[in-house]
Amino acid sequence: MPIFETSPFTVPASDGLVLAGDRCGPSFAAATVVYVHGLLCDGSWWQPLTEQVHARLDGQIAQIVWDQRGHGRSGRPHRSAETTLEHLADDLDTVLTQATGSVVLVTHSAGSMIAAAYAQRYPARAAALAGLVLFNPAGEFPEFPALPRHFTTAAERIKCLRRGRFDYLAAAAAALAERRFRRTARRLGSKAPLATGTRPGDPRVLTDLMHAYRHFYLDPDIAATLRSVPSFVIIGDRDRVVPAAQSTRFAEKIWADQQMVPDAGHSLPRTDPDIAADTIVTALDVAYHADVDQLLLDHDGELAADTDSAS
């Protein structure tokens, strides 16, 4: 089994904020898998899956995990700056400059909305992706059947305090809620309804993003862009954050292959890394054959051009 070693990197975002991540695999790999985590998580959340993919492919492809702004080791915006999905789409575009070869984008939970925002902001670049793997995705704000209604509406009330003299109250409330979710995740482990990372996030960023996610919708134009990318949606039938029916709707809109995993919950890539790795390997195999087919087409075109010029 190849040794799993990662190299940390930092890259400046378009607004100067520093994004942090880790890369494993060859420096100039023929393919790169880039992972997008969900809210309350960070790049370290993907480790069971990245280790599995690395072992499965003998370390021959590159993998990149990164911490979104306000999460993990990445920089935190100024307290007066609002964080939007456009910021995260721009950040993803920046991180993708670190990838080589064919790129397969892998998301979890709300990370699917970042992928959709990326497709909306950079449609040509999104259409050029070699593959898209979405675990427990949602094309709109997760329905959260596991949580009482007042938890899902609290974000809007906190957001109202986010500007002006009560900003510190909003930050304190968001930090308190995150600590509560984090404690629950540690206590319940893989059975926890919400996935969390190892490091606390910026409470103001979390507040802004909860608001952004609540107002996001996968419109037909975005879905049409994503349909050109070979896509795979993996669903946990016991997901208590993004119900299976919600993920299925997303898959149907982008014409993705679907797989329902029995007894899997919201943390499917961590609890079932074998199944998750199978899907990523499949996406890479599709990308490889697409590259080969394109090379053959290019070669045939060159031969035809040479024949025409000779005659």
From TrEMBL:
Molecular function per GO: hydrolase activity
Top-level taxon of origin: Bacteria
InterPro entries, A to Z: AB_hydrolase, AB_hydrolase_fold, Hydrolase_4
Transmembrane segments: none
Domain Serine aminopeptidase S33: 30-256
Keywords: Hydrolase
Protein name: Alpha/beta hydrolase
Annotated source species: Nocardia veterana
Upper classification of the organism: Bacteria, Bacillati, Actinomycetota, Actinomycetes, Mycobacteriales
